[in-house]
Write a structure and sequence with these properties.
Rossmann fold; about 35% helix; five-stranded parallel β-sheet; TIM Barrel; globular; binds flavin mononucleotide; FAD/NAD(P)-binding domain; alpha/beta; 3 domains; binds iron/sulfur cluster
């Protein structure tokens, strides 16, 4: 073991359960359930993390009340026959690899949506989580009693399934948090008003859950430190709640976190724009007040930061959830001192929470093609007969193809026309707050070198070069070209596509208009880039709003950053004309023209097209090849990396 991380890899005792190290894979919805039951896919997902060396896993929230609608989506329902057997499989798999495992218990309260099952929401008070949202029915005393019993029943089931304990979800704006917060609890009975009254419901839940699981199992509590909403929980109240809950002697650890739906979920699953270990100071404060271990959270992505949090006494455990979504083997790699081998989470969010938010698609990772696909990854075998493979293009798709092909035993050569690997991530990371995208090329450079892939940079290959190389397998991963804005021809000296606006060292002047027909990140980050350099920037789009394809949490922060930089984002305007220093839009609502004068540059983003030049030539020559990434069709980073893994696994 590397002595570097002595604190991180020291065991910790939670009641009767010893955890082998301080690293926690905290609860998170995965949408990996099958027929609303935990199946082999979910078991493989957790098993991979246990095998990778994590100490403690908290399984995604089980919603304790039978009508909770999360139980009707691709999430496990503990009310469905088969839940127990499926859960036992998860627990066994995790225990086999030496980790411990808890089941999180929760109820959505006003944060559930009744649109699916058309059942009424309920909550402590009739206050929706956002103005104009679904109005919850205030729970009466009988409802509260039934809910406490539901928590106890669920805890009993968790014990039967063999879990080492449960974590009660008292944060992120869910039902228990709603009772604790003045923002959502304006009751006038014994469950509302004073902080003691607002603590009554969580205290009743804790007592009932403890009774259900017995004295030996672990009972953790996810505690809200800052709600970031008017009248919401602040650290002052969180301290008092922590003391009250601790005095019961039934809670075995506190997992201190922040944010809710009302604050914007970017406060819960912080995107790249947030600094590392952002909520650790809150855990540190709670730790001074309670007698049990405390866990810190918030973009803790590297073992050195995690080690320092434990070593300096800020917390006893560290949540590194997305860190292990990106690399399940992160703990083992850190323990063995192989830090460069780690695929570090960048906070891109698009593959994990972004996919859940898009439509409850199965969890993944932009960077790790095997996340959520652990069963298919297991099927990837060494190549039956090693071959000579040529990959043309060193963006994420090409690099991932080369990495997987080399891992499987092929002899791989990669040609890249640019001066470095990374493709469009090299450009994207120039925008403010996006520098962590550097990790993509850092990881690939390291692994291609380690696996002996022959990388040639600055080489623009022709079809003849490819044919004469004599490869057994050819993979084209040459990327895409920006789609042209047809009107740009009218005034080429004014118009520049977003890709070039992010990468070229040019002066675009002080009065920039950005026009977005694409709904993804590039144009918005280009606007941010130029605004941060002091230009006055306005963004126009023909859609209702810009960036609707961006992960909602990244978008939440980016739109705020744009507003902070005085960038106006204006929807329902279509570009009609470009003249020297002037652009004319049609306001699609009012059907009138809007002319912007003294424009120094027009940055546009109309998406991209596959780069087909080599594909067409090789097809003409009758040469076989695979297409990976944007040159097949542009699909963002996650699509490029998945292509690389899929094709690299087939060669
Ligand atoms: C896809 C996803 C779903 C989540 N669902 C839950 C949940 O059900 N319960 C919970 O307490 N936290 C949930 N979280 C929050 C995580 O437990 C964790 O607090 C958050 O990801 C920040 O930690 P990290 O920066 O180490 O990822 C979720 C996070 C993600 C990425
Ligand atoms: S998608 Fe992004 S935030 Fe999510 S785990 Fe992967 S790298 Fe981290």
């Amino acid at each position: 073991m590397s002595a570097q991380f002595a604190h991180l890899f020291s065991p910790i005792q939670l009641r009767t359960v010893e955890i082998r190290n301080r690293i926690v894979f905290s609860a998170h919805l995965t949408a990996l359930s099958e027929n609303q039951l935990p199946g082999e896919r979910l078991a493989a997902y957790y098993r991979a993390r246990a095998q990778g060396g994590v100490g403690l896993i908290v399984v995604e929230a089980a919603y304790v009340y039978p009508t909770e609608p999360f139980t009707t989506g691709p999430f496990s329902s503990l009310h469905k026959p088969g839940w127990l057997e499926g859960s036992m499989r998860i627990v066994d798999g995790v225990h086999t690899h030496g980790a411990k495992i808890l089941q999180q218990l929760s109820d959505g309260g006003r944060q559930r949506s009744g649109w699916n099952d058309l059942l009424p929401n309920w909550a402590p008070s009739a206050i929706p989580w956002h103005a104009g949202g679904e109005l919850p029915r205030p729970m009466n005393r009988k409802d509260i009693r039934l809910m406490v019993e539901a928590f106890a029943q669920a805890a009993k089931l968790a014990r039967q399934a063999g879990y080492d304990g449960v974590e009660v979800h008292g944060a992120h704006g869910y039902l228990i948090n709603q009772f604790m917060s003045r923002a959502s609890n304006q009751r006038e009975d014994e469950y509302g008003g004073s902080i003691e009254n607002r603590a009554r419901f969580p205290l009743e839940v804790i007592a009932a859950v403890r009774k259900a699981i017995g004295e030996d199992l672990v009972l953790g509590f996810r505690l809200e430190a800052e709600e970031y909403v008017p009248n919401g929980i602040t650290m002052d109240e969180a301290r008092r709640f922590a003391i009250m809950l601790d005095q019961t002697h039934q809670v075995d650890y506190f997992n201190v976190t922040c944010g809710s739906y009302a604050s914007g979920q970017s406060r819960v699953v912080m995107p790249m724009y947030y600094p590392s270990a952002v909520y650790a100071p809150f855990a540190c404060e709670i730790k001074q007040l309670v007698h049990v271990p405390v866990s810190a959270v918030g973009r803790i992505t590297d073992p050195a930061t995690a080690e320092s949090i434990i070593a300096d006494g800020s917390a006893d455990m560290v949540v590194m959830t997305r860190a292990m979504l990106a690399d399940p083997d992160m703990p083992n790699k850190a323990r063995e001192g192989n830090l460069e081998d780690i695929r570090y989470c960048m906070g891109a969010n698009e593959g994990c929470i972004g996919r859940i938010h898009k439509g409850f698609y199965r969890i993944g990772c932009v960077f790790n093609p095997d996340t959520g696909e652990e069963l298919s990854a297991q099927e990837r075998t060494p190549a039956a007969s090693p071959r000579k493979v040529l990959v043309v293009g060193g963006g994420p798709a090409g690099c991932e193809t080369a990495r997987i092909a080399a891992l499987r035993g092929h002899t791989v050569t990669l040609w890249e026309r640019g001066r470095e690997l990374g493709g469009q991530t090299v450009i994207a990371r120039n925008a403010p707050g996006r520098s962590e995208l550097h990790e993509v090329s850092r990881f690939h450079e390291h692994w291609l070198k380690k696996l002996g892939v022959a990388v040639r940079l600055g080489f623009e290959a022709t079809a003849e070069d490819i044919c004469s190389f004599g490869a057994n397998q050819i993979v084209l991963a040459v990327g895409s070209v920006p789609a042209m804005l047809p009107l740009a021809k009218e005034c080429p000296e004014l118009a520049i596509n977003a890709r070039n606006a992010l990468s070229w060292q040019v002066d675009l002047g002080k009065n920039i208009v950005v026009y977005l027909e694409d709904r993804y990140l590039q144009g918005l980050t280009a606007a941010h880039h130029w605004a941060s350099r002091g230009a006055r920037v306005a963004v126009f789009t023909p859609y209702l709003s810009a960036g609707t394809d961006v992960d909602t949490l990244t978008r939440e922060v980016l739109m705020q950053r744009l507003a902070d930089a005085n960038v106006r984002v204006i929807g329902r305007h279509r570009l009609r004309e470009i003249r020297a220093n002037q652009v004319v839009f049609t306001d699609l609502n009012l059907k009138t023209d809007v002319t912007i004068s003294e424009v120094s540059a027009l940055i546009y983003d109309c998406g991209s097209h596959p780069d087909r030049s080599l594909e067409d030539q090789l097809t003409e020559l009758g040469v076989d090849f695979f297409l990976a990434g944007d040159c097949a069709t542009p699909r963002h980073l996650i699509g490029a990396i998945r292509d690389g893994a899929r094709i690299g696994g087939r060669l």
